[in-house]
Structure formats: C-alpha cells, structure tokens
Amino acid sequence: MNNLIRERKGMLILSLLVILLPMGLGLFLWNQLPDQVPIHFGLNGQADNYAGKAFVVFGLPLLMAALQVLLLVVTMADPKGKNIAAKPFGLLLWICPLVSLFCGTMTYAKALALPVDINLVGGLFLGLMFLVVGNYLPKCKQTYTVGIRLPWTLADEDNWAYTHRLAGKVWTIGGLVILALTFLRLPALQFVVILVLVLIPTAASFLYARRRETK
C-alpha cells in the first residue's frame, strides 16, 4: 500500500489541488457572490438552505480536503491494504475532488443566478458515478476501506467476491436507470433507485452468508 502511495504521490497532490479549486474560484467571484449562498436544493431545483459566503468559499473545500486526507490515512492503516489495486485506489482518490469541484461549481452558478438546471446536472453526475463505480466494484479485493464493507463480506472472501460481482452489475444498470430518470425529469424516483441499489447487495450478501452457514 505504501508503495502504491509513493507511486501516486504526484496524483495525491493534484487531487488536493483540485479539491481546493472551488476556493480559488470563490475568491475570484467574491464581490459578485451574495452574503448568503445556497448550499442545498429541493427536488424542484430551488434552494432550500443557505450558508455564509466565507464558509462556502473557504470552509467547504477545506472540509473536503480534510476528508481526503482522512481517507488516505485510514487506507494506509488498513491491515489488508496490500489488496488495494491501483485502479480502485485511483477511483477512491478522485471521488472527493470530483464532488468538491461539482458542488462548488454548481453552488456558485446558482448563487449568481446562472441558468443552470441543478436536477439535470446533478442527475447526470450521480448516474455516471454509479456507472463508473459499478465497473470497478468487481475488481476490488477484500479490504477494510475500499468496497462494500459488511460483516459478511469482511468475514468471507467468497462472500466478498460474490457481493461485489453482483453489486457491479446492479450499480451499472442502476446508473443507466438514474440517467434515464434524469432526462425524464423524475428526480424523486432517483432516490428510490439509490435505496434499491444499496439494499440489493446488502440483502444478497446476508442471504449468501446464511446459505453458507447451513451447508
């Protein structure tokens, strides 16, 4: 694991810089931003929660950077860290930067009253995330930090492999469904799909473990 981190040192630094990009953009737009900036939006795409400009510009990117560092520290401490392959680690490395960049850009756009359809852009982002993660899940070997960490998957490597193969297929299909619902303008159903995508691998892993116990 440490060798993988040393090999990706430049990528680690780049990921932190990308996380902090919204801070630079916020400073550039500082005088144009309102004192209260929208940070949450309802299903109708309208803002329903606000935060101070300083917190949005400085606090949110710094929180995401702290989360990135925490994820790295936890991953380094993983007793099974040697099982983390380069591609899943790269995906893990870029989740926080992409979320920070997406949220920062959308927040500033809405604060400046730009004609951005938050539901459309957010749905596309979410659907693509599930598609990408779904393709990587079957490649994840058993670890305590990367993958679907359930009591049954962590206790049994066969359960881990079965659950991740199934979840990879389900999440890939789910990503396509979320994209379709995005274009159909059905954001409420997207939350139902996400719940299903979480429940199916969890239930399948539990049932697989029960079957193994009865043999």
Q: Any overview of this molecule?
A:
By secondary structure, the chain is mainly alpha-helical. The chain folds into two domains: 1-115, no CATH class; 117-215, no CATH class. The protein has eight helices and two strands. Strands 1-2 form a two-stranded antiparallel ribbon. The protein starts with a helix and ends with a helix.
Largest β-sheet summary: 2 strands, antiparallel
String of helices and strands:
HHEEHHHHHH
> Which regions are unreliable across 5 or more consecutive residues at pLDDT < 50?
none
Helix content: over 70%
The strand count comes to 2
Indicate how many domains the architecture comprises. Answer: 2
Strand percent estimate: 5-15%
- Please tell me what the overall shape is: globular
Distance between the termini: 36 Å
The total of helices stands at: 8
Walk across the major sheet and give the strand order.
Answer: 1-2
The rounded Rg comes to 19 Å
The computed structural class is: mainly alpha
Q: Mean of the pLDDT scores?
A: 91
